Amino acid sequence: MERTRVYVVEDQPQLLKNLVKVLGTFEELEVVGTSQDGEEAVEDILRVRPQLVLLDLELPGLNGIQVTQRVKRRASEVEILILTSFEDEQKVYEAIQAGASGYLVKRVGPEKIRSGIREVMEGGTVLEPIIARRFWNYFQSIQTKPPEKKENPWGLTPTEFEVLRYVAKGLSNAEVGQVMTMERRTVRTHLSHIYRKMGVNSHVEAVVLALRAGIVDL
Is 50 helix (H, G, I), strand (E, B) or coil? Predict the structure, then answer.
């Protein structure tokens, strides 16, 4: 089995040690590097080229938003999953705008981190439901124009539209599958069709367009 190569950035030594230990218990993951400093992390990530970076926001040197921006600018294939203590919607917005594929808070358990990494590596976006609501409410609050009501301009099927609605609420692919009683891979297939029809590459981009078109209610 090919393991996912993970790099961990966390400025608290004990927490960093604990994270590495926990991730090491998952056979599908391999920790290929760590850093406690933002600037050092960027240099090391660009050298090591992990598949995913588990990243705190509050760091010496560069903060997590700046790290995300610099890494994505020079290594767009590297996925960024934020793991931090901040829960406010502005931080979530800034992280996603910078290129992060997910945002988890440190109170979540090891299995949630594990499933979050898997979700991101399968092309999904990780936002806990309560964080997702705050994020989209914040997004809507900073829009200068109200959404233009359009009647499904991309020709989404009823099933695709329902998948998009659940994704907007912060459900993972697996959770959408449970609610809609379909297999995880079927959810991924529907999402790939949604992305193609809407001309986007991620959950966030799809929901942003849907909100701007006024076809998704949160």
Answer: coil
